[in-house]
Amino acid sequence: MSKQALPVVGPDPVACCPPIAVRPMDADQAAVVAPMFKALGDPVRLRLMSMIASVPEICVCDLTPAFDLSGPTISHHLKVLREAGLVDSERRGTWVWYRVRPDAFRQLGALLEISTRDGGA
Amino acid sequence: MSKQALPVVGPDPVACCPPIAVRPMDADQAAVVAPMFKALGDPVRLRLMSMIASVPEICVCDLTPAFDLSGPTISHHLKVLREAGLVDSERRGTWVWYRVRPDAFRQLGALLEISTRDGGA
DNA sequence: ATGCTGTTTTGAAGTCTGTCAACCTAGAGG
DNA sequence: CCTCTAGGTTGACAGACTTCAAAACAGCAT
Q: Are strands B58-59 and A58-59 parallel, antiparallel or unpaired?
């Protein structure tokens, strides 16, 4: 029963996207996935993503002091991560908490899985 | 003995970089890795990377016709992938062949591995 | 040598990105 | 109501990115 109805909230990572080393990616799929990689393509955002992914959730007030950047700049980078679908945010009282979106994260990981095509290349 | 002297051609993917969901990434590491993600953050380059990674090696002459872009533009994108350390190129006679760099590819995959920290978040 | 084909480099135009200052909004607490 | 703090939004600017045309380079074949 539990296998019959998969919890497909978004597209299933693997079913939708075999690793890029297995089959050439078509233009449509690339247009969807590239923005996710792009979001991770900035050192600040990569660190933000890592800080968020390393804990169940984290407050912006704990993210900002880790950088020599203004609040608006951090806010901007968080927005990019949010719009790429990599993280979610939720206001609880005074503070805003960020959380990784595991499905998106898994999808990216699946795309970079090494091909089992051979043992050499 | 075999464990004592690791074949460290480049930095060992896993030893150097635990998944970003395990431990926050420091600024130095982010500065090294972000350009790789950035290189994959363009739809054209993502497709190029996928085409290259799907086969042992591939000629530029087989890459260019897959896009509605000029030769120089494709060449530029290939250069970005090359300088990010994701692919290698080799001229053989008239044509230039591109090949994925498995170590870099593995490193990126390892970074996106899902944390085994828990089953919930 | 001369030409032909495949690939890269150079130069330039237009667009996008990262950053901050200034301002605005949401909630807590008088 | 007002004030204070935490975050986000807007506007602006310097620098980077994508793209192409033109030129340069590399190798094969007359």
A: unpaired
Q: What topology is assigned to B26-111 in CATH?
A: Arc Repressor Mutant, subunit A (1.10.10)
Q: Where are the domains of chain B?
A: 26-111
| Averaged confidence pLDDT in chain B | 86
- Where on strand C do bases come within 7 A of a protein Cβ? 5-11, 17-22, 26-28
The beta-carbon neighbor of B109 closest among A24, A41, A114 is A114
- Residue among B25, B30, B56 whose CB faces A121 most closely: B56
- Residue A15's CB is within 10 A of a number of other CB atoms, namely 10
**Architecture category of domain A13-111 in CATH:** Orthogonal Bundle (1.10)
Portion of chain B with pLDDT greater than 70, in percent = 81
Cβ < 7 Å from strand D, B residues 10-39: 38
pLDDT at B9 over 70: no
- Which whole number is the average pLDDT over B93-103? 97
